[in-house]
Amino acid sequence: MRYTQFFISTLKETPSDAEVISHQLMMRSGMIRKIAAGIYTYMPLGLRSIRKFEQIVREEMNRAGAIELLMPGVQPAELWIESKRWAQYGKELLRFKDRKDNEFCMGPTHEEIITDIARREVKSYRQMPINFYQIQTKFRDEIRPRFGLMRGREFIMKDAYSFDVDSSAADLSYDKMYQAYNRIFERCGLNFRAVEADTGSIGGSASHEFMVLASSGEDAIVSCNACRYAANVEKAEGIKQQQGGAGQQALTKVHTPDKKTIAEVAEFLNIPQSATVKALVLSNGEGKFVMALVRGDHELNELKLKNRLGWDEIQMATDDEILRFTGSPPGFLGPQGLKEELLVVADYTIETMADFVIGANQTDQHYTGANAGRDFQINQIADIRLIGAGDPCPRCSGGTLEVWRGIEVGHVFKLGTKYSNSMNATYLDKDGKEQIIFMGCYGIGIGRTVAASIEQNHDDNGVIWPLPLAPFHCSVVAINAQKDEAVMSAAQDIHDRLEAAGVEVLLDDRDERPGVKFKDHDLIGIPLRIVVGGKNLAEGKVEFKQRVGGEMQLLVPEQAIETVIAQVK
Ligand code: ATP
Ligand code: MG
Ligand code: MG
Ligand code: MG
């Protein structure tokens, strides 16, 4: 591919709304362009990496025996009403009506559609096990889309759904997907962990998340230094709480005056236990921060807080700001990162707890007696977790826990009969008796994984693609391309021979200074590079260099070509 016949549009400046490195580099290298909040165009360069990853996923899904299909993005409400999720799903589900007033949604996931397919098509035990998958565009109206493709509203997901005759057969299907996921992320060269997770709104009995380790990750995970135990922190806390005494102990351990659990604060503020209590980080734009307890409608509460404090403007704090004021890593305490168990209050300008309290929707409960300095330590974040680094492992004796931050790139669930029950998906067994189908579902974020790879592989100059995800394997940079015919024809020849050997090559034939070209290739992150220049060529040599590690080598073209082919194969 000639550079001048392809389309690459790099940026010199980092867009101001790009907080994490992958978002910055994807914008700067021209991989994506923003259309609206959380909605992006995959530009030609970005699309190549996206397609690379899709192909890896496809190969491993096929290898594991899953069968590809493609379901619609638009889904009828009826199916969601049947599964009871129409009422449960909340605002992430984008709903709308057609011209005949029929209700629809943009699919955030496809359990309903695939269960409908299965109940019509899978009628006999002979048809199972079966696993359908697709690579398809999802829509979730995320409350705070951010980090580019990492948390978009429209995003590409690989989702697979397994159907089995009983629970133990479903376990086998689950294991197959678990193995396939390991292979997929290993092939991408990612540093990741599979961790035990909660099942959330998808439902089911067991699940694992695949977490790419990265400081920018929005999830906290723990792993044991002695056994193989690893879990999402929420899940680990759940286990501790179930163990009763242990949970109590952990709570006491971290129960210092400046630290309160959200439940304690909820009680203190007289917010009913039944209410959903969430936390929200706000700033008045002048470096004044408050972490407030809110419940119910976020926007409404934001407005109330604004009025109560008499601030003209309240904005969500950025991760950098949160980091600066709390000393906690971005994401950990950001609005997305604040989980219900995580906890509580900090501010350092406000006088009394009353200032924190935001009323419920109708009954504006207002706590008046409290003093922030006395009842809650000010200027300190109360980061309460039931479980943390150094705690004893809940699985083995002797092991202690380490805490990591991770990006959830994949998630596998044992669904059991949750959807087959509510939607009546049954089959006839050997004896002609009607039985319920057992299901599993398995997701991978395509764009999020590509972004996660950049979080793990970059330097000051740009992206460093691992070969499997690189938009091009090798660039051939022709120096003085538009004027030096000998250079151009040698470069073209190298390009053609590499391409014939199956190497994806970008031939930089632009009329640009060498420095500009090298900068662009570094930014784009192409792993291998051959430079063809007049001086070296006169001596029958070209330069070969890798994006990272390895010195520049002067080689005869034949050798350079062989070196590249050997690396790519
Ligand atoms: P998160 O906890 O990050 O909101 P999720 O648990 O809601 O993700 P799942 O329902 O498990 O997501 O979806 C399967 C996969 O889809 C996730 O593991 C993730 O890789 C990807 N994914 C989910 N939401 C998004 C999003 N908003 N943008 C990009 N990818 C996403
Ligand atoms: Mg989500
Ligand atoms: Mg999740
Ligand atoms: Mg998930």
UniProtKB/TrEMBL annotation:
Aminoacyl-transfer RNA synthetases class-II family profile domain boundaries: 38-466
Major place of residence: cytoplasm
GO terms under cellular component: cytosol
Keyword Cytoplasm: yes
Enzyme class: ligase
Keywords from the UniProt entry: Aminoacyl-tRNA synthetase, ATP-binding, Cytoplasm, Ligase, Nucleotide-binding, Protein biosynthesis
A Pfam family per the record: tRNA-synt_2b
Cellular localization per UniProt: Cytoplasm
GO BP annotation list: prolyl-tRNA aminoacylation
The enzyme's E.C. designation: 6.1.1.15
Record GO terms (molecular function): aminoacyl-tRNA deacylase activity; ATP binding; proline-tRNA ligase activity
Top-rank taxon: Bacteria
Record field: catalytic activity: tRNA(Pro) + L-proline + ATP = L-prolyl-tRNA(Pro) + AMP + diphosphate
Function: Catalyzes the attachment of proline to tRNA(Pro) in a two-step reaction: proline is first activated by ATP to form Pro-AMP and then transferred to the acceptor end of tRNA(Pro). As ProRS can inadvertently accommodate and process non-cognate amino acids such as alanine and cysteine, to avoid such errors it has two additional distinct editing activities against alanine. One activity is designated as 'pretransfer' editing and involves the tRNA(Pro)-independent hydrolysis of activated Ala-AMP.
Subunit composition and interactions: Homodimer.
Domain commentary: Consists of three domains: the N-terminal catalytic domain, the editing domain and the C-terminal anticodon-binding domain.
Family note: Belongs to the class-II aminoacyl-tRNA synthetase family. ProS type 1 subfamily.
Protein name as it appears in the record: Proline--tRNA ligase
Organism (species): Trichlorobacter thiogenes
Lineage: Bacteria, Pseudomonadati, Thermodesulfobacteriota, Desulfuromonadia, Geobacterales
